[in-house]
Design goal:
81% helix, 70 residues, mainly alpha
Length: 70
C-alpha cells in the first residue's frame, strides 16, 4: 500500500493511522467515514493536555500584555 507520499509524517501515518483505520473498518465499524471521525477524536483526546497548557499560557500572556505595552 505505497500509493501515496506522506512526506514527513510517513512513520505516523503508516505506523498508526492507516492500520487503525483498516482495523476499525474491518473489525469494529465497517464504515470509513465513522472510522475517520473516531481517529480524529482519538487524536484530539491525545493532544488535549498540550492544548490545555497552551490555553493557560495564552491566558497568562493576555493578562501580562497591557503591562508590556506600557
Amino acid at each position: 500500500m505505497n500509493f501515496f507520499n506522506f512526506g514527513p509524517i510517513r512513520l505516523l501515518s503508516e505506523g498508526f493511522m492507516i492500520p487503525f483505520l483498516e482495523f476499525s473498518y474491518n473489525h469494529i465499524i465497517g464504515n470509513y467515514g465513522v472510522a475517520i471521525i473516531l481517529l480524529t477524536l482519538l487524536i484530539k483526546v491525545a493532544f488535549m493536555p498540550l492544548m490545555n497548557k497552551q490555553y493557560a499560557t495564552m491566558k497568562k500572556m493576555r493578562d501580562v500584555a497591557p503591562e508590556m505595552t506600557k
